[in-house]
Amino acid sequence: MPESAEVRLSPFAEALRGAIRQRGATLERLAEHLRDKGTPVSLATLSYWQSGRSQPERAVSLAALRNVERFLGMRSGELAGLLDAPRPRGRLAHRVPTPVPMSKVWPDARSRHRALDGLSPRDETRLTRLSIVSRLEIGPDRTERHQWNRNILRAEEDGVSSMVLLFWADSDQPPPVLVPTRNCSIVALNQDEEAGLAAAELQFPRPLVRHETIIVEYEIEQPGSLPATNHERRGRMPTREMLIEVKFDPRALPARCEQFSEIGDRHLVRPLTWDDTYTVHALGLDLRPGAFGIRWEW
C-alpha cells in the first residue's frame, strides 16, 4: 500500500498500541485483567480501540480505561486525555453541545456579575473538562483546613489561553487565598463580599492548540472559623469525570454524610461512609451542567 494511503492512527489509538507493545502484553491478557477488575471489555472492542476504529465514550468504557492505564503502567488520565470529543448520537447527532446559561448554575445574577467583572470567560466554552479532582481536609475544629484541585482540560480550538474559576467566599469570613501550583497564574481576582462569591481568571503558560491537553492545579485556603458543611463543584459545561474527596479528622467526625447532585430538575442523594482514612468520596461520570458534591451534618 502506498504510504499516502496508510490509515493514520488517532493519538489515543497510537498511545494505546504503543503502551501494549512496550508492556509486552496481549489483548487477551488485558481483557482478562479487565474482567478481574469488574470492568469487562470484549476482545473485539479492545482491538477497535487500538486500531482507531472506535474509542471509549460511555461511562462503563471510561471506567475500564482507568484499569487499562493501571495495567499498562501509565499515569492516571494519560490515555483519557487523548480521546476525541464523544460523537453525538441519535436525534442529537446533528447538534453541537452548548453550555447552559450561567444563571442555571449561579442564580444570583448581581453577585455573579460583580464577581466576573473584568474577567474574560470566553474560553470556557472552548475547553472540554476531561477530569476534575477536588480534595478537602477538615480539621478537628470542623473547619476547612486545605483544598487541592486538579483539572485536566482539552482545547477544542486554537488559542485557548485561560480558564475562569467561580468559588464560594463567606461574606463574614476572611477572603479565601487562591494559590496556583501548576500550569496557571492569576491574572484577575474578584470577590463579592456581600454575597460571598469570588471569581478568578487563571492563565495558562501559553495558548493551547486544538486538541492539546493541559493539567491545571491550584489550592484554596479558607482562613475562616465557621464549621464546614459541604464541598461542591458547579459547572455550566459537561464534565467527563469528577472526583470529590473529603477527609475528616478522626476527632471530629460528622453525624451524617451524603453525596448529592443537582442536574437540571433532578436532585439525587446517596449516603456515604468514610473509609479507613476517614475519607468519603463522590465520583461522577459524564456529568451534565449543574452541581455535584458532598455535604454533611455535625
From TrEMBL:
Protein name as annotated: Transcriptional regulator with XRE-family HTH domain
CDD domains in the record: HTH_XRE
Cited InterPro entries: Cro/C1-type_HTH
Species, as recorded: Saccharothrix tamanrassetensis
Lineage: Bacteria, Bacillati, Actinomycetota, Actinomycetes, Pseudonocardiales
Superkingdom in the source lineage: Bacteria
